[in-house]
Amino acid sequence: MEDITEIAILGMGNIGTEFVEILQHQLSEIEDITNQKIKISKILVTDLNKERNVQIKQNIITTNPDEIFNNKNISIVIEIMGGVDPAFEYVSKCLESSKSVITANKDLIATHGKILFQKAKKNNVSILFEAAVASGTPIISTLIRDLSYSNINSIRAIINGTSNFILSEMEEKNTEFMEALKLAQKLGYAEPDPTNDIEGFDARYKLSILSSLAFKTEVEYPKLHVEGISKIDSIDFQYAKELGYSIKLLAIAEKIKSGILARVHPAMIDVNNPLAKISGAMNAIEIQEKLLGTVIIQGPGAGPSPTSSGILSDLIHVLKTKHNSQSVPNLINNLQINDIKTLESRFYLRFIVHDKAGVLSKMSNILGEESISIASVIQKENTNLEEKYADLVFMTYKSSQSSIDKAIQKIAKLDVVDQLKSLIRVE
């Protein structure tokens, strides 16, 4: 074993520390698999004096990124800094210095992926990011390598472990949203500021990446519709169960005649669908492909260990191919990203209404005016509401989002309607 591959690491937080520890523990096995010696030459940190729970030679730690960019012996750089700034600048310089890059940074790839892919191609190096979407769950390599010539029709994914944990708690234990969120924070699934997770922004970044790879086109995340889970109540799960559904935060991208319709929002799924059974902080990605049919990949979606697993997978791939097999996504298409208003779906609508005669007929008339057919109605007392109010739930047949929006605007003006409490699309 004569070949020595020198690597550098950008960032040494929790994930960086875990990765180095795992790499050291499995080093001989990885070297046997790849037939190459591995040497960590530099680790970029912000604080040289910080105590770390892993044994590292002091002379390889630096606060100067130029020691990595200008070191011609370093051929692979692993970026685990997080965020876009200065990660974009550093990764760009690594690629321009003919170094392959492995990153776990979803924000970076979703924001600047196309530019970085072009830089990698120009400099004949690879950029790999298996851990950026579903940690150690191998979806990126599946899309780039295994399904690179496939004809994918749609992706439906549970790709935020925090929100899935919260929804699972609400469904299985009948807890309210805030109680489930506090438990997620206590267990370390949710950040002190959970906004990115519970409002769907994290899943939107990830869907941007997945749909770009699946449809070989740049899908910019700001163009994707996003709704979170913070407005869902435990009673919505009770009604969903009556109707034969579970509720999940889904990231969905599908090919339609005019381009791509991609969005993140809570959705009702038939209880017999495999995605409905994904519980806790797990991830799952369902791919509909023309020849294969339905493929589902699932696994842990967060945490240092799964993320380190994804990074190691990419590292082994680069080492085994000895940099001769360039791994860069090929975004050759230019497909239009459609507005959510073009969506055709069934809808679950829960209104809080005044508990009096004539309410149902008034609301049904408005839905009829917008050509929205009602599949079922649930009208019952909600013990969490004051005596003069009740829940009125409509399950519609397939309708357009634009028609639903118009109907809701009209219904909101009725004096017998207090508010629209929940709007959940049915998959």
- The residue-averaged pLDDT reads 93
Please count the helical segments. 15
CATH topology of the largest domain: Dihydrodipicolinate Reductase, domain 2
Rg from C-alpha positions? 24 Å
Distance between the termini: 53 Å
Shape: elongated
- CATH class type of the largest domain: Alpha Beta
CATH architecture grouping of the largest domain: 2-Layer Sandwich
Structural classification: alpha/beta
Q: How many strand elements? A: 17
Hey, roughly how much beta strand do the residues contain?
A: 25-35%
CATH superfamily name of the largest domain?
Answer: Dihydrodipicolinate Reductase, domain 2
Mind describing the biggest β-sheet?
11 strands, mixed
| Domains (count) | 3
State the low-pLDDT regions, or none: none
- The helix content, as a percent range, equals 25-40%
Describe the structure.
The protein folds into 3 domains: 4-129, 3-Layer(aba) Sandwich (Rossmann fold); 144-300, Dihydrodipicolinate Reductase, domain 2 (2-Layer Sandwich), CATH 3.30.360.10; 343-426, 2-Layer Sandwich (Alpha-Beta Plaits). The strands form 2 sheets. Strands 7, 8, 9, 10, 11, 12, 13, 14, 15, 16 and 17 form an 11-stranded mixed beta sheet that branches. Strands 3-2-1-4-5-6 form a 6-stranded parallel beta sheet, sandwiched between helices. It is of the alpha/beta class and 427 residues long. The chain has helices spanning 14-25, 27-34, 66-69, 87-96, 106-122, 131-134, 140-146, 161-173, 177-186, 195-198, 201-215, 234-243, 304-321, 359-369, 401-411; strands at 4-10, 37-44, 61-62, 74-79, 100-103, 127-128, 152-158, 225-226, 245-256, 259-270, 282-289, 293-300, 344-354, 374-380, 389-396, 399-400, 417-426. It starts with a strand and ends with a strand. The model has no long low-confidence stretch (mean pLDDT 93). It is elongated. The chain is built from 15 helices and 17 strands.
